[in-house]
Write a structure and sequence with these properties.
Layout (H helix, E strand, L loop, with lengths): L5 H37 L3 H12 L12 H35 L1 H12 L5 E4 L3 H12 L4 E5 L2 H9 L3 E4 L5 H6 L7 E4 L4 H14 L4 E5 L5 H8 L3 E3 L1 H14 L1 H10 L7 E7 L11 H6 L3 E7 L3 E4 L12 E7 H9 L2
Parallel strand pairs: 1-2, 1-4, 2-3, 4-5, 5-6
Antiparallel strand pairs: 7-10, 8-9, 8-10
Helix pairs in contact: 1-2, 1-3, 1-4, 2-3, 8-9, 10-11
Length: about 350
């Protein structure tokens, strides 16, 4: 069974808040009735009757405003009993509210929901198993905020312990994806064990955010085409990738070691990055030669997902909408990407 989302927990907490409000209304109503009783029975002014009612309900022990007759004493005793009931009832309800908030984790769920609402340009990770946890570590190492969606309580606990924002629920549902900020995210990774679930996740995410960059995990070769038709920009098979990597390590281990180090964000001072050429950015209109003079070498220029130009000449200028794959000193690459 899927556990309630943070929004659902918040809704459950409002029931207790309404109980507290009802108790306050009862207290105010008792004061009004008590004041009216003293005013009618003892023929006091409203001010005197209100003072007597409040001191009686709160059991502070002050003397009577005026001498009470038998009816007045009976009314005062009734007010005293009502005051004790209201006081102990308030303590009981408030205590239950506080304990329930702490024990159920509603407060943490609301805090987590508020943190997710304030997150922008993040990556949504659907599934926090062994593969998902490895993906999250790499994203975190690269400085990208991660919001994890998972139905398993243990997986969510591990994700939270690793410092990631967490949304409980089924990532195939639109409501959960919206709660994770799919319309504000820069990307989504469908990384659950089931290919059919990954297809539904991709379909839902693509419908909610047509511009989202989606990477999907595929466990079977026949699922690759389905995931692409559903809207995935890239499909990755962990088994196929592992096979290619093992073969490459057997043939050219030093090349693979260098590439891994260059992509590891900080292990060496040399790196490989992909930089988008946005309209009005510093890169727009610049040439390959200008970057080379700064020690940044352009390996390829991509126009869309398919067309690309390898080792462009120095006079080649960059156009808005393209993306470039560059290599060079890590500090210089950060400086180039940070320029407006």
């Amino acid at each position: 069974m899927t556990e309630p989302s943070a929004a659902a927990w918040t809704g459950a907490a409002r029931v207790t808040v309404r109980h507290v409000r009802s108790l306050l209304l009862v207290a105010i109503g008792t004061i009004v009735v008590g004041t009216a009783g003293f005013a009618l029975l003892e023929h006091w002014t409203v001010e005197d009757a209100l003072y007597q009612t409040v001191t009686t309900l709160t059991t502070v022990g002050f003397r009577e405003v005026h001498e009470l007759d038998s009816a007045g004493r009976a009314w005062a005793m009734l007010m005293a009993v009502a005051g004790v009931a209201i006081i102990f009832g308030s303590i009981g309800i408030i205590s239950e509210y506080v304990v329930d908030e702490v024990a159920s984790g509603r407060r943490e769920a609301r805090n987590m929901a508020r943190s997710v609402e304030g997150t922008r340009d993040h990556v949504i990770l659907c599934g926090y198993g062994r593969v998902g946890a490895a993906v999250a570590r790499e994203l975190n190492h690269a400085g990208h905020p991660v919001v994890v969606i998972d139905t398993d309580e243990g997986s969510r606990a591990r994700a939270a312990a690793d410092g990631h924002l967490v949304v409980p629920g089924d990532a195939t549902t639109d409501a959960i994806l919206e709660e994770a900020g799919v319309t504000r995210a820069r990307g989504l990774i469908a990384c659950v064990d089931s290919d059919s679930e990954n297809v539904f996740i991709v379909l839902s995410a693509r419908q909610l955010n047509p511009n989202l960059f989606i990477v999907a995990r595929s466990n079977a070769v026949e699922s690759d085409a389905k995931l692409q038709r559903a809207g995935a920009n890239r499909v990755v098979s962990p088994y196929g990738t592992a096979g290619r990597r093992i073969a490459e390590l057997a043939v050219r281990p030093r090349v693979i070691d260098f590439i891994d180090a260059a992509l590891s964000h900080g292990e060496i001072s040399f790196s490989i990055e992909e930089l988008p050429v946005a309209a009005g950015s510093w890169l727009e209109g610049r040439t390959v030669g200008e970057l080379r003079h700064r020690g940044v070498f352009t390996l390829a220029v991509f126009q869309g997902d398919e067309r690309h130009e390898v080792h462009p000449p120095d006079e080649r200028s960059f156009v808005s909408g393209e993306s470039i794959v560059v290599t060079g000193p890590s500090g210089e690459l950060r400086a180039v990407s940070a320029q407006p």
